[in-house]
Amino acid sequence: MSKLGNLGARLYRGEVGYDFIGKRKIWYGISILITITAIVGLAVRGLNMGIEFSGGAVFSTPKTSVTTAQAQEYAESASGGHQAVVQQLGNGALRIQISDLDTKQAVPVQEELAKDLKIPAKDVNTQLVGPSWGEQIANKAWLGLGIFMVLVVLYLAIAFEWRMALAALIALIHDLTITVGVYALVGFEVTPGTVIGLLTILGYSLYDTVVVFDSLKESSKDITKQSRFTYSEIANRSINGTLVRSINTTVVALLPVAGLLFVGGGVLGAGMLNDISLALFVGLAAGAYSSIFIATPLVADFKNREPEMKALAKRVKAKRTAAAAKAASQESEDVPDAAEAEDAEDGAEAGAAVVGQRRQPAARPRGRGRTSGKRR
User: What is the pTM (predicted TM-score) of this model?
Assistant: First the structure.
């Protein structure tokens, strides 16, 4: 068995473990700090909405020797200062997006671009995108997100309990806020691919959370009938028992997404891959974090407020105090008093001095008084 597998088995059996629940205030503080940073970035920089949401024109050109930087300069100059995004395709062609252009403005920009790029105007393909199409996508995405949240809360409340449903909902909002905040800070363009990525990470985040919740539900069954563990301790054991599994699934999921983000987007320059992979990468990492450090500690906090759990904690504490006192008393009875031991030792030495050394008669030589010669 590998070292990681051996560690997972020991974590599952409770032989080793980390106190996630006991240090939950640290995790809460880290999450609050990251969330505030994401909200500030979103408020200050805002989202860089793609042409699908803001409207504009898309110009596709054949293969050209002009660089993307030069093409962006030409496009912004031809459009009168409108923001332009240029992507170089695999065959050397260019895809130029210019926001906030209508039909009347698109024709002169097309002719000016063809002149600057030194290609015929008829070879420049123009496609207009209205902002209403992007609004429809956004509205449908918000509607789908709302329905998804409601169904998730209802399912978790029925399958587990309402406290777990509430904790999972908070973890989902945490993951979405961080992902959107990173988008604002990095300045990536928000496209329909971004929306797809955001909706995808919700399922993964819930998957990891439900795995821990299922383990916690089984471990806490009939918890009030025992007095060995508190609810927080059982929740902590559930996290440790599924920790290696969560790490493995997260790493396996992040590796291909990292390939899309850094190789597909960074090296090949594929913009759509960047849009999807960044949302997936940040969302998967945030989902793995929230399932371990946010969702389950929140459930423990909610449960510990119940009178039954408070009474259980008191019974566990009283039992452990009594066991510690009993162990201390047994230890004191087993170990003799130091003064008594010293007196006994002195008495033994004195007795030995009075009795003295025992004297025995000297041994008589075996050959004394025997006649020499053969025995008859």
Answer: 0.74
